């Protein structure tokens, strides 16, 4: 008699329940006469991630007690870990027009997303304090701090409901999945131990090395690139997607990798964003997450391995998801393969280390990065993209 197969048991969502704030579209929503609140690209992205459960246990934008707990202690008011504030900022003028108890119609900048917001609190906050505690600096050259100071002075708190959703482009649509969908796919594939990989960059050989090292101990890899707002000099999301497709088609086993998109904006909050990325990937069904050097960092604002050290501030039981820490990887000419300082005894002269700045300079010059740094198929896509002139207004 053959042994019966059982479905894998996936990790629980953060807080024990996957939130779903989607509702059917009301027939008369345009006739309700509600006050309208136009979202920014950032708050629109957060709205969808609240609604689909990626930000579980959040059911809306943070109220003051949760906001202060997150900023000061990296915990919600109920004690659950949460490291980055998810807020709905407005100007003082906008806030003055709103009353507690208002039901507001939320509209995205492109008009393709709409939902309801139930205003339970409006409160002032200290942007300088948030900058210091969340980003570790008040320097407005930091993109996260710049975004913080550009937003409104008043925060609105309360639950949301969403009935119209962002419409992904035809390029992104096949990979556009919420946590409920990725979890279902993991079950169908028989995966229980799943490692997540966060990225806002093309995957180069060092990334490939640590991903495949992690794949040796799990059932599958969720390659989960962030496709929301990033810095102007980051590689555009559509170019990166073509790079991911080429890499997976040629160098990864198809039955052990799921490419899916994470429609969040990049906060560049370094250590705190590493915790945030871990908790969110837990909601998508990942039991493990890869944390490499300078995770979610920018410039020289964070120590190289600060994003790994911050995990010591939480117990394994608090986070639930298991971080896998990797050092900087490189190609060693003497070893003849990828390695890290944990496995390679040779000197810096034997190691190929290319900075992002140097790679961008090569691409701008139409030069291919060496195969020890990136796969030829990926390099071809990047060189072609950098050769294509950007048309104003496109």
Question: Overview of this structure, please?
Answer:
The structure is a single chain. Helices cover 31% and strands 17% of the residues. The protein has 394 residues and is α/β, with parallel strands linked by helices. The protein has two domains: 29-164, Sulfate adenylyltransferase (Roll), CATH 3.10.400.10; 173-262 and 268-387, HUPs (Rossmann fold). The radius of gyration is 22 Å and the shape is globular. The termini are far apart.
Short description:
The protein is an alpha/beta fold.
Q: Which outline best applies?
A: globular
Order of helices and strands: EHEHEHEEEHHEHEHEHEHEHHEEEEHH
Classify the beta-strand content into a percent band.
15-25%
Straight-line N-to-C gap: 62 Å
Mean pLDDT: 93
What is the CATH architecture term of the largest domain?
3-Layer(aba) Sandwich
The amount of helix comes to 25-40%
Number of domains: 2
List the uncertain runs: 390-394
